[in-house]
From TrEMBL:
Key words, A-Z: Lipid-binding
Originating organism: Metabacillus endolithicus
RNA-binding found in the keyword field: no
The protein's name: DegV family protein
NADP keyword on record: no
Pfam family, any one: DegV
Annotated coiled-coil segments of the chain: none
Recorded superkingdom: Bacteria
Function: May bind long-chain fatty acids, such as palmitate, and may play a role in lipid transport or fatty acid metabolism.
InterPro entries listed in its UniProt record: DegV, DegV_C, DegV_domain_contain
Amino acid sequence: MNVHILADSASDLPIEYFQENSITFLPLSVELNGKQLEDQRAIKPKQIYEEMRQGTVVKTSQITPSLFKDVFTELAKKGTPSLYVAFSSELSGTYQTAMMMRNEVLEEYPDFRLTIIDSKCASLGCSLAVKYAVELAKSGKQLEEIENAVKNYCQKVEHIFTVDNLEYLARGGRISKASAFVGGLLNIKPLLHVEDGKLIPLEKIRGRKKVFKRIIEIMKERGVNLQNQTIAISHGDDEESANEIKALIQEEFQPKDIYINYVGAVIGAHSGPGTLAIFFLNDEL
């Protein structure tokens, strides 16, 4: 590849994907029982969900400036043009820290070509953008071509998701604690999406089956050419629901591919067990 790709753990791609495609892996961290643990390396998502079900409060932290500087410096020494597809700046300070460290490294290596894209995406929404960047890099595209194409791609990624327990969103300040309590009593499931990198509530729906039906309706409303897309589904330790919505999507749209993975530890610490998210494109590339 003419361009080296970097991505962070908030893309929720399996670490094996990074290894198989020679991508630099940048881990965010979770704080669990007083210990800082690197996402995917020192802790797996299932462990986080088990802890959360037992009432453990999990905190998260962005990638450290020192890690960014070390990684960027190594790449600068090699002189390989590089592109980092970063977790949404509206959900983490990771992008801003990366830009700050990039500028520091460029003072010492002014000829180093490093592009950092604020994907405005999260979880497997970000993974779709990373996979697209890898595909372009493998096809021999140059840095500027990949940058423009990936930015365009990111603007078209839809994130539609629901959570099983409103309390976790309440802890993160996304909804009020009163709303979480009432919602839990009434079996209300919120539907949310991502707009310009921010989490935005869409609707409140009672019952899981109605939520699934509404997700399919939204995909019909927003999706374009779904039969030729790769659609991603991420879940908070709820493979049963992920496979259930996969079957509905398959039946309705017959997409080119559907892949499923966990909502990773960092994002899952805020969304909680039972989260279910669907990612697809809303326009032609």
